[in-house]
Amino acid sequence: MSKYFKLLIFFMSALFLSLIVAGCSDKEKVVITNIKQLNDKEFGIPTGTVADKLVLSVFPNAKFQYYNSVLDAAIAVKQGKVDAAAYDEPILRNIAAKNPGLIVLSEMITKDDYGFAVRLEDSDLKNTIDGVIKDLKINGDYEQMLMRWLPKEGQPKAMPQIETGNNGTLRFGTSSVTEPFSFVDESQKVVGIDIEIASLVAKKLNKKLEIVNMEFGSLIPALASKKVDMIGACITITEERSKKVLFSSPYYTGGIAAIVNK
């Protein structure tokens, strides 16, 4: 075999290898812009949630990696460890706003309504909550509230000062791990969309608002045992939960969404 023929074989082999590597690289760098592209992709999912089951109900070929928190799952997306992370749309929007390079796909995997809950017999309190939500949407304050808590970029704005009443106490149960609905701000106060609306309900009733922070799974039991009067923390309205609690009218329509790299 001549020296020139050996060189030709060497260069052809190198070219073939580079094409394979380039092909693999292009596959890894596929930009996801449409939810239909996610059918056989790998998702990051927060441990202990049902997000994986909801994803499988739409994308039966999906694969999963599990993380301690939704933020950890989103960081895994940014690092290229998974193709997407799936969780509640407003919470993913909040993460994307604070992490350049991430974006929430506009079409959701599943759609859900979020509401506040009271005990089954507390229809008067439910009606008051419904009235506050209706007024917010009619007078335009609702859109301003969403812009405050769900900016397109950056951190949520400061919690507005809301003067409540003094004729008794409205005990509001929440779980401060659902930013921007309920979370602890830099001053170590529990704030968010749910806290703002609960404050307006307390104002309407001329009562002081007492925030009772707890684990998400303890909210409905605490309500049933009368430790709190009202609960809210990005709670999805479901038929099963409606057997145990009385839900307000929906104040936010979201669902399970996907966050991906831009």
Task: Record the SSE blueprint.
Layout: H1 3-28, E1 42-46, H2 51-58, E2 63-67, H3 70-78, E3 84-88, H4 89-98, E4 102-104, E5 112-114, E6 117-118, H5 123-139, H6 141-149, E7 169-174, E8 177-178, E9 182-184, E10 190-191, H7 193-205, E11 208-213, H8 219-224, E12 230-231, E13 246-247, E14 252-254, E15 256-261
Parallel strand pairs: 1-2, 1-3, 7-11, 7-12
Antiparallel strand pairs: 3-15, 4-15, 5-14, 6-13, 8-9, 9-10
State the share of residues found in helices, binned by percent. 25-40%
Assess the beta-strand content as a share of residues.
15-25%
Main structural class: alpha/beta
Oligomer: single chain
Q: Which consecutive residue ranges, at least 5 long each, have pLDDT under 50?
A: 3-27
Number of helices: 8
Q: Based on CA inertia axes, which overall geometry fits?
A: globular
| Average predicted confidence as pLDDT | 90
Rg of Cα set: 24 Å
**What letter string, H or E per element, gives the SSE order?**
HEHEHEHEEEHHEEEEHEHEEEE
Total count of strands: 15
Task: Walk me through this protein's architecture.
- The protein is an alpha/beta fold.
- Helix content is 37%, strand content 21%.
- The chain is built from 8 helices and 15 strands.
- The protein has helices spanning 3-28, 51-58, 70-78, 89-98, 123-139, 141-149, 193-205, 219-224, and strands spanning 42-46, 63-67, 84-88, 102-104, 112-114, 117-118, 169-174, 177-178, 182-184, 190-191, 208-213, 230-231, 246-247, 252-254, 256-261.
- A 5-stranded mixed beta sheet has the order 2-1-3-15-4, with helices on both faces. The protein has a 3-stranded parallel beta sheet with strand order 11-7-12. Strands 8-9-10 form a 3-stranded antiparallel beta sheet, covered by helices on one side.
- Strand 8 (177-178) and strand 9 form a beta hairpin.
- The longest helix is centred in the first third of the chain and has 26 residues, at 3-28.
- The protein starts with a helix and ends with a strand.
- The relative contact order is 0.18.
- Mean pLDDT is 90; it is low at 3-27.
